[in-house]
Amino acid sequence: MINLNLDCSYPCTDINRNMTFPIVDLDTRLIRIVMISEAPSNVPGNYFYTKTSVPFFQTTKAAFQDAGIEIKNYEDLTEMGIYLTTAIKCSKKDYLVSSDTIKRCSEILEKELSQFPDLKVIMCMGDFAIKAINQIYKRKFGRAPFKSGSTYKIRKEIHALRGIRFFPSYTQTGDSFNLEKSKRRMISEDIKEALNYLRNN
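-> structure tokens emitted (201 positions)
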């Protein structure tokens, strides 16, 4: 079981106080890839490791289908060594959240990531995830995996630090998967590249 200390008392004003995190019983030693989306949905129940009928799973399923990989349930992802979570643990009030909120939430994400001893790949699905991972690694090691720049530009580079390969990408979750075709294509490319990296390392 994923075990998090979620006693969060930070007075964030740009998120709703509805802390949501993955509740799943799995062997953390099997996880090699963590796929970090941006934030939970405002729709109750629409989150990872709940029903496969909810948009969070269906949009993730569609992203993998775009990459030529068929998944039917969360067990399929776990068997591939993939764990799903979000950078922000409460839903957003508006489209964006502050860097302070991301920094504070990154402390919880850091605890979450520490539970995977054989982690090889971190996929950052959206700007919140990219910023949160940068916060974690700057705090722990004094160096961020990603430099400043648009996702479109930095995803063309190789990002690696302390035995982890990082992939900056776009969020594949939400209440629908109405992304422009170019972003869907790039997400599928990033998924394929991450899995190919894992097979060879």
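DSSP finds six helices and five strands in the chain.
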